[in-house]
């Protein structure tokens, strides 16, 4: 049985995208799939029956050792981890980052064949073969699907694949969701860079519209602990609940899975909505990871200004015109369409 190691250490959204490769690989025949991922994000993949084993990279532990100047212990633990990887005797390792750190781990895995996606940061030095990025850039996770095709795997399903363990779902229902209405929606307004944020007053206007018309629904705001104060500004009605900083990643996943839909910006939680085939509205501006998906319930709102997507290099003096161009009325209109499906 062939052993394949997928290497996608982060980030949340990219891990979600990369799960589109799981079904083609599994359907190819007798293979065992392993996934190397940073330990804080490993819960995204736990319980996924298309993965035979999730291997957690203890990055937080190693960062702590480095910060405490415990270099000898750090080196010993890294070497122990590398030895552990090599014991698996992988046939193929596939670096899905396409940058140096992914290719180094492909090399350290000791796999017989080391494959990479795209050439950047001299990553090709550690790989046997590098495949170009490609595919229809407007489609969800296209570069991963394109790589799977180049590797000879048949694509029969273009959907990402995530699972939530029953134990987690039941725990969420009995605790965090115990005082939440049976029908609820999620918003994911927070992300990594300011140019990916939608406008605060737009969120407020949208939530006022939703809560005034859909009285029997609650709205849950998801985010990290550092987002709590910003989320509080969006609590415009008693039906809006601020869960920012109150959930672990696995719990946030379960909440999205149990919800009736999600509205969010370009962030991993929004992409989970598509993976779970939920009613999903994705608001994109400076970045546009996709326009279409295999989930008919996903609607992407993207103004497509001449300066978009600017990615990490805004040219609007931080006005973020692309996000201003998507109004609360536009989002609410799409919300009502999805809710009424």
TrEMBL record:
InterPro entries: Glyco_trans_9, LPS_LOS_Heptosyltrfase. CDD domains: GT9_LPS_heptosyltransferase. Keywords: Glycosyltransferase, Transferase. GO terms for cellular component: cytosol. SUPFAM superfamilies: UDP-Glycosyltransferase/glycogen phosphorylase. It comes from Calditerrivibrio nitroreducens (strain DSM 19672 / NBRC 101217 / Yu37-1). GO terms for biological process: lipopolysaccharide core region biosynthetic process. It comes from the Bacteria. This is Glycosyl transferase family 9. GO terms for molecular function: ADP-heptose-lipopolysaccharide heptosyltransferase activity.
